[in-house]
């Protein structure tokens, strides 16, 4: 007789782990109807089995010994919600080695060691799903792999870090300074005590590496992503952006032109009319442009106990369905295209540039001549006095320019006597050919 | 030796059919890599085999005889892009009867006869997929069935008709009248010569019936959907809406409270801060609220040759993968919950109400007393002169009220001497408990 229940081991019992248990308990009947099998949480790996928890009925299932899960032949699926690389990676490889399917929410691990983990899964005929690793509650990985399977994705743009989006939204709405909003976000629990991974863009970069790998079917690595965070974004930048019709967002960009790819995470000026410009607070959104489908966008909560846990349990449902159908380990799309990265001369963007210059006759002419010499033409220019009588501020939006040309201009400007300071330089979304 | 190619018959060679052929031709290599099988279009059913077409390499494959496809034992998958009920329904049932899998873009058919078609598919172990039938380029059906499989969806709201959204967006942006914008939309090909199905909400109602069936796992029928179109929406309604912080959209609503369900399509005032309020032009968007995931939204093109064709081909990829895995006909979630429809006393909404009244002392008091007597309290009221000196216009936004109470008030008002005319009454989004 066929088994009526599939046994699950849960690695980690923090926020997401608790959410997973809650959802499985609350939706047992629905899950059973969808998959034809019950899901039983057999064991939960915790750091401290004595700690009091507000979920009941899990007594006797807690263990501090990973072998109780990894070496239990009855457990067919392991859900990893510990996070981080060690020991999560060893646990997952250990589970796969023993033929267990894996569902994980671990973006760090999948961004850094996804290839190794998927290879092991393929060898062992096991499923590995990780929908929760990118944009928690948004089923974006599924959409990329299945929904767009017949299209050719040319561009993905993501607001994939809730902390930085909360900070930038607040700065924009209240005209507040970065440092003040960061403190507030920390007090509210939207930013961590050490916010580096979020505010410097590393978290978003991991997610973009995962999105680019799946969307372009190319094995992207974390080090392929150009990263710049938001700690240098000032309230003046945001105010000038608004004046010119833009919002500043920490935007992940993955583009391909012909077969050459660029992936970056950087503060970006987005036209107010773009659907991404109105994604505010801790929400995430991923915009996908496919040759055939055109523009689409997926919007939702990027984190949180239940949204993330929902993504985990949806993956779990797929594993259980696959097991029932006897097709585990065959559903994944391994990257099969060669990775060709653009060099900087191929990365084309409009740029926002804000510089402080000596307030002398002919300065604007000198600056614009320099740009013209470097093949950069201007779409908008504002010049105005800066703080005192001796300096002026020039704000420019360029037409499409290559990153190498722009880097050359910035380096040259830093050396010019008339330039006091290059205050800021951001990519501006728009203007490229699709 | 396993077959290397799967043979496909295409029913219909109009806009979407042409797109399907284009995409299969352009992505043959990608499709092969994803599924391990080539896809060969063997025959195409057309009305006129002599008509000139701008797709080459299809000569000799055109037929005017459906039996050439339906009775060809080599053809394993039939793609139906004729549209309408007859003869599409007979073709699809005929294909299933002979064990062929079906992919269709036909919302009319799936909304009206989906249950019969899915039953036949189940009997025959065949796949039937219809992602393209709702919101063309947005993979929303997949998201509902798979992405949210572990969640409990409580509310879906959709801008699922591009024609009406184009008209309302234009009216809002330009302060234009309905009739003028409709004419312009017809000239541009965004509205049909006979626009009834779009502007009266029937097209959107079909899509909402499909969404509600999949999202709530309940067998919803088209006649379960309350429908009201946009032909009565005036530029004044839109202007007052804006003044009060709302945009008017033709909104599909599917809600469930406990197990009781309501599904409607009607002009609705949406707060400007809501992500649906900024979905403009022919774009579609579906907002989904799940108990665990919270708010999500899917945005994209709702129609068009390539977006719709992409959805068709993505379904085709799923059919081919399933066939390779030997699991066709087992992937569908048949509705398994009992259908419990709300009665009007259970349908709670805020309302926008615009009435013209005699401009006499005490009229506002009489109107507000009437509402109070019917359990309806007010959130905002504006009174102002109307056209001449003898009348006044009262614009109100109510707190939550039941549809039956509101219908009662409207009927009563029509009889009141002091009320010249009830100009408009729209549902206002917001204010309910989640």
TrEMBL record, chains A, B:
UniProt keyword annotations, A-Z: Amino-acid biosynthesis, Metal-binding, Methionine biosynthesis, NAD, NADP, Oxidoreductase, Sodium, Threonine biosynthesis
PROSITE patterns: ACT (PS51671), HOMOSER_DHGENASE (PS01042)
Reaction equations catalysed: L-homoserine + NADP(+) = L-aspartate 4-semialdehyde + NADPH + H(+)
A single MF term (Gene Ontology): metal ion binding
Biological or metabolic pathway of the protein: Amino-acid biosynthesis; L-methionine biosynthesis via de novo pathway; L-homoserine from L-aspartate: step 3/3; Amino-acid biosynthesis; L-threonine biosynthesis; L-threonine from L-aspartate: step 3/5
Matches recorded under Gene3D superfamilies: 3.30.70.260, Dihydrodipicolinate Reductase, domain 2 (3.30.360.10), NAD(P)-binding Rossmann-like Domain (3.40.50.720)
Positions annotated to bind NADPH: 107
Residue sites binding NADP(+) per the record: 11-18
Gene Ontology biological process terms, A to Z: methionine biosynthetic process; threonine biosynthetic process
Ranges of residues in domain ACT: 352-427
Residues binding L-homoserine, per UniProt: 192
Active-site residues, Swiss-Prot/TrEMBL: 207 (proton donor)
Names of required cofactors: a metal cation
EC number(s) recorded for this UniProt protein: 1.1.1.3
Family: Belongs to the homoserine dehydrogenase family.
Protein's name according to its UniProt entry: Homoserine dehydrogenase
Organism: Brevibacillus nitrificans
